[in-house]
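Teaching soon. Got one?

===
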Amino acid sequence: MPSASQRGTRVAHACTVLRSLLVTAIVYFMLASAVRADAPTDPSGQMQQGLQAFQRGHFAQAVQSWRHAVNQYTAMHQSAAQCNALTHLAQAYQALGHYKRAQVSLQRAHALALQANDRTQLAVILGSLCNIYVAIGPPENAEKPLQSAEQCFRYTSSLAVELGQVALAATLSNNLGNWWISQAQPRAALATYLESAQLAQQASRPDLAARARINAAVAATQTGQYAQAEALLDAAQTQMDDIPLNHQKAEDLNKMGIAYHDLCQQVYLCRDELIVHASDALTKAANIAQRLDDARTLSYAWGYLGHVYETQHHYAEALLLTRRAMTAAQGVHAPESLYRWQWQAGRLLNAQGDVEAAVTIYRHAIATLHGIRQELSHSYGQSPTTFRHATGRLYFEFVDLLLQASGMQDAHHKTAYLREARDTVELFKAAELRDYFRDECVDAAQANPTPLDQFTHTAIIIYPIILPDRLELLVSLPHGLQRYTVAVPSQRLERVVRSFRVSLQGGRVQRYMRHAQRLYDWLVKPLEADLARTEIKTLVFVPDGALRLIPLAALHDGEQFIIHRYALAITPALALTDPKPLQSRNLQVLTMGLTEAVQGFAPLPHVSEEVATIQKLYDGTQLLNENFLVDRIEHALQTGDFGIVHIASHSKFASDVDQSFILTFDDKLTMDRLETFIGRLRYRETPLELLTLSACETALGDDQAALGLAGIAIKAGARSALATLWQVADDATSVLIQEFYRQLQQQSISRAQALQQAQLKLLADSRYQSPFFWSPFLLINNWF
């Protein structure tokens, strides 16, 4: 029977292998199964067949044909034709969402075009590579002009103009506009789209001009220029009549319909003609898609048309169209659209009062969403949004539905609904972490098979669920799962949370105390009676949204801080918590840090005292100042047997994981590099017990950055982490950290209790009574 750590190792290895091989297997199977007996044997015939499939929206068939053409041209040593076939193949891969495969094809084509000195083909290839860079970024070895998507588009656009390729320049300008939209720069996008439309007119390409005007209308709507947006859509609508029937025209009509509808949602007293224009464009898109046998585009046309009917409260017609969209998406195995229409059907069924059917279809939508590969989640040409406000809404709508349905059930079924609501929150938390860290396997090694209810023997587990009209608390108590409803809208809750964070860092008692008591009334007071009936003295919060920004230890009941009564911990997801106490108090510690000012960051003089105390309490290795180098960190972790890694240095967590880092003497250690170094410890019999970051900071008001902090233990492969929401005075940090490690040596005390005692020691010191000093220290994940 393998041990738990061995099982975790196998899971991590399996996930890594699957991540690299699964898509290859699927694509090859898809290609092999699609081979037709009457497929042309000459490469030019394969190219034509691929083009016909692509124009019908049959992208997998296009991949098959163009791959055959690439192989044949390669065998025939026809490099120019091979280059052209590779460029087309990349288009099909990108349409399927396989961006990395598209990038590989384009890089091969780029090498061939360079060899032939074909500047026109180079411009085409580089233009396609620019689109890939928007989704996944340029490779490390990219040429200087291609180091960012913007530079890439500008460079290739200039090259196209120089070569007299006006139509290509128009396409590149349109794609640059898409990039501006993805960077939340709609004004820059609008100007670029208008430039694209002008170039397309010069090139006598009404299809490109119409597409650019539709996109410009989207940008104009985002900037509040509604009259200009409508004029642009009307002009594009007129041009559509001159464009032949193909897949791209159907897609552009879909986008036009959405743009008309979105414009209607922005304009006060939406006019009927805007809805008519939206419906007309989507109906035309559906008709074209049907004629082309393009089920994928047809799915979007029917689904979006169903959404138009939904917003007009024509639920029966909307549901009929949505079910058609679901059938079309299932027919071409398009989960990236299927989950949308399942979600939409769930909303419609709920609006019609069919709660049981709505619950069932919501379940299907979440299952479909979980089956989508990470690279299908890229939103090229769309405004950026957080995971929570995009697909995350699906989870919370379902949780809301389950909670409402639980109130209509008997005791047995009520408990089942509440458990499903809690499990859905857990699914969301894991998915949110994967999205933030951009790592499909970030949680694989720590996925916990222990039933969630087993945790209630050591702690009270509190799930605050922020819904638009209220706050719900799902609380796992020793006698079962309980629900508490607090009538506070999400906007008010988030205002108070953010004000609390600001006032804590400002240090004004009268300001933070008011917010501390109000948040206590919302988050803890509703369950006081149940808490009083149990002897458990540890509260574990699974914080959501803005609640990740605040130290819950600073909540106040009007007489004392909550930390006087309870030890506290947080976890990003309980299913990712490894529920094991410290096996030994005689752990080896790798202690690292900076006392000196480096790379523009202030010195931390008290770190030397902090490090010295840890060295007295535990055996281990020390890397300080000029010894705190990236290569030495890697070597120490490879050769040592450490149960605790303590880092006393500046650390920052940002909304973009790539901008999060730990400062070393010679570099900045990113989260990916930290995972690489520390993650190796997962494969030992005893993984890393504790990672401590004693001087870290999250951006004020940035709950995405706080998500990164909350997930640091999981990302690094540690059972728990101790970190701070903001950087505390160096002397106060040193006192708290030293006391925490002293307490941790006691066999009878848990990690959460050790932190509680350390915080109470600071609170009892007149110099550090303000929660600014002691409250931002968070114990993350395993509290045992």
